[in-house]
Amino acid sequence: MKHNSYFEGKVQSLAITTTAGPATVGVIEPGKYSFGTDCEEHMHVVAGTLAAKLPGGEWQSYGQGQFFVVPPHVKFEVEAAGDVAYLCYYKR
Amino acid sequence: MKHNSYFEGKVQSLAITTTAGPATVGVIEPGKYSFGTDCEEHMHVVAGTLAAKLPGGEWQSYGQGQFFVVPPHVKFEVEAAGDVAYLCYYKR
Fold it and tell me: How sure is the predictor about A11, in pLDDT bands with cuts at 50, 70 and 90?
């Protein structure tokens, strides 16, 4: 299985194939990060709370069980005050 | 963050600190595995379906959003037909 590490190991993920398509489960350690998308992404918070700022939007906070959709080919920002576990689906 | 790899990389996890205590998020690739617990574990299925056999119990299947509790100091078996993402809380 593919193990990815970003931002000097502060964001790490494991690849998974689901019935809803390819996804990653991962952990975001406290900090503020900028990500880019290739395809549409459905980002589900599994544990913790994640703030996200999508293009043209305001900062919004997502708790356990909540998700947000990121359009393809954009940059977006996230900020975690504590550890966050997530499940991200890639809609190719 | 701690990245653990078991069973020749077929089970991998990432450590996380949550408001409910220490936990790991991970992926189980298809196969049958035997685990042992040090403390009570609360195993939540985040994606996919996981069959588990606890001591003295029968095989039971857990889907996305379901969880099972494993007592401390026991061995238990799990079997995955497809990839499974999980969140496991350690109740020390």
Answer: very high
